[in-house]
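Appendix B. Raw example, untouched.
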Amino acid sequence: MGQERYDDPILSERYRDWSLDSEDIRDAPVWDPELGFGGDGDANVGEVLLRGHCVTNGPFAMLKILYLEFEDKPHCLSRGFAKA
């Protein structure tokens, strides 16, 4: 459920019905640590970058990124979902 197909055969790829998660995107299955991309960042790990914290679970946990905007600045992948 939540996965639908377009009627047009050219556009028949699956898509996510984001309206199912519109009340709180942080609870969306896509951010599940085991089946998705991992959750919100952890405020206790690493530095705050663009209002986000290091992702510590899921397949991208503690992934090192080399650049921040236009600077050479190694850091962890960070996320910071705004509280509703």
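End of appendix B.
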